[in-house]
Amino acid sequence: MDRLNDLIPSQKQQVVEALLQVKRGWKPFPGPQTQAFESEADILLYGGAAGGGKTDLGLGLARRKHSQSIIFRRVFPSLRGIETRARQMYAPETGYNESLHRWKFKDGRQIEFGSLQYDKDVTNYQGQPHDLYVFDEITEFTEAQFRFVIGWNRTTKKGQRCRIVCTGNPPTSQDGAWVIQFWAPWLDENHPNPALPGELRWFTTIGGKDQEMPNGDPVLIDGELVSPRSRTFIPARVQDNPALLGTDYLATLQALPEPLRSKMLYGDFKAGAEDARNQVIPTEWVKAAQDRWTEDGHVGNAMTCLGVDVARGGKDKTVITPRHGNWFGRAWAYPGSSTPDGPVVAGLVLQHHQRPAKINVDVIGVGGSVYDFLKDCDGIEVVAINGAAGSKSKDLSGALGFFNLRAENWWKLREALDPASGEDLAIPPDPELKSDLCAPTWKVTARGIQVEAKDDIIARIGRSPDRGDSLVYAHAQAYLPGQGLLDYIREMAEERRRQEAS
After folding, report:
1. Is residue 249, in this structure, part of any structural domain at all?
2. Does 92 sit behind a cis peptide bond, omega within 30 degrees of 0 on the bond before it?
3. I want to staple 155 with a disulfide (CB 3.0 to 4.6 A). Which of 149, 160, 436, 484 is the partner?
4. How crowded is the C-beta side of 11, counted as CA atoms within 13 Å?
């Protein structure tokens, strides 16, 4: 209670009210928690900073507003704190089943606790509708897990509202950066049309990508009438939680080192996420390359290469990235369902190709047929990129070789993005591309540098890093500053002479 004496009178009154509220039964605190409790958003992100009453919000909504609820944490042991808090909030009510991890109340409401440690765990909840989904610490989940599970956010109960509530702090690693993109109008500092806290924005999915709509009116997509769903973000900090004002928690947050202090104390999503210790390309290098990019940076520079990453099925995309010297253009992305075979993909590539640029194609899997089709086209230089092939190259130090061609291509891009290289690569300010380029990790093996396998990245981040791979392929060519540039110019001149002679 010593801390209570340090508070101003209005804060003291808030703490006293919070203590009395525990005895009277839970209700949301005035301010952000009440705003979130009453929000009309279909998909709500609440919190940002630590201590804003995030867990209480989810438990309170489940008990007061919803019929069938489920509250997730990424790993099951993390649910113990929520279960303990639920017993405190719901007392003296009974009805908790320890073995099923489920509350069943006399008024018919049910609240279930679950976890999604592995991507395959989502199938445990397939076809089990809930009118409320709560994802506690949303940045710990993959985007694929989140999108799959919320597909069953529905009810048959007349008059029952359905919604999704996510709580959490800014991501501490690049794996959780998808959250910033999902709530970009509120969290992305570069968003062209920022939204205010609590403001509703409507989104739907077109061509496998989120598209913002002007309102919630149904829209016709591929012959089907689709209703956009609303999103919002409501920030909250420890200062908004009277129950913690009389404790040492605020001092604990203030003592954290940066950037963790800004994340946890202020909920600052702009504070940099920590890079993995063995991340292939440092995030700051990618950000610097994106800051150099301009829309017209290719003017006066001929297209030098197209990098083609071919969809391998499922939710993958076929992505084509253009390169003009040291400038990379915005990628063209096509859902895998629209690129079923080699000739179709090759046709799309040729639509974007400008002679005499090379075409670098990933030939593993479906890409082999794309390469076969393109190499039979007159006047087109197509290069097969087989990441599993061996490499005889060395890194810039000359000390390390590469496990395979995939490692070589990723590492050469890393070296080119290094500010010390002087290459000044410029890449589009695409959040998903940034996430892709920052995703892979590496290690040194007896055969040299090994970059994390694509399948392992997919398992970790919940999606395929198609945009990053496509840019890597676009970079995988003999274009270097200094003598390398002269070699490249000679090569292009020779190519033009061959075309004129034919």
Report:
1. no
2. yes
3. 160
4. 14
**In this structure, are 341 and 206 located in the same domain?**
no
Q: Which residue has the tokens 């063209």?
A: 332
Same domain, 52 and 146: yes
Partners of residue 70 on adjacent β-strands: 112, 133
Which residue bears the tokens 């995939």? 406
Residue 464 has what DSSP assignment? -
Query: Are residues 294 and 213 both part of a single domain?
Result: no
Q: What's the rounded Cα separation, in Å, for the pair 415 and 409?
A: 10
Give me the CATH number covering residue 473: 3.30.420.240
Q: How far apart are CA 310 and CA 123, in angstroms?
A: 27
pTM: 0.66
Q: How far apart are CA 7 and CA 250, in angstroms?
A: 12
Do residues 198 and 39 make contact, with C-beta atoms less than 8 angstroms apart? yes
- Rounded to 5 degrees, φ, ψ at 203 are -135, 150
DSSP code of 377?
S
Q: Which two tokens stand for residue 26?
A: 């839970």
Residue type, 60: G
Tokens of 333: 């992305």
Residue-range definition of the domain harbouring residue 205: 28-244
Q: Is residue 5 part of a domain?
A: no
Question: How many domains does the chain fold into?
Answer: 2
Rounded distance between C-alpha atoms, residue 496 and residue 490, angstroms = 10
Confirm whether 11 is domain-assigned.
no
Tell me the per-residue pLDDT of 7-46, one tens digit each, with 9 for 90 and over: 455 544 544 454 445 445 788 989 999 999 999 999 999 9
For residue 408, what are its two tokens? 């070589």
The span from the first CA to the last CA of the chain, in angstroms, equals: 89
The conformation of residue 273, written as its DSSP 8-state character, comes to P
Q: Are 325 and 236 in a shared domain?
A: no
Cβ pair 333, 321 in contact under 8 A: no
Q: Give the integer Cα–Cα distance in Å for 43 and 465.
A: 25
Same domain, 149 and 205: yes
Asked, as a colleague might, if the bond just before 218 is cis with ω within 30 of 0, I would say no
State whether residue 262 is helix, strand or coil.
helix
pLDDT tens, residue by residue, 389-410? 999 899 988 889 999 999 999 9
C-alpha 193 chain-centroid distance: 20
Are 225 and 305 part of one and the same domain?
A: no
CATH number where 154 lies:
3.40.50.300
Decide: helix, strand or coil at residue 444: strand
Burial class of 466 by CB neighbour count within 10 A (0 to 12, 13 to 18, 19+): buried
Query: Of 194, 227, 244, which residue is a domain's last?
Result: 244
Residue 233 forms part of a structural domain: yes
Report the DSSP pairing between strands 219-221 and 224-226: antiparallel
Task: HSE, CB side, 13 Å, CA atoms: give it for residue 57.
Answer: 34
* CA 386 to chain CA mean position, Å: 27
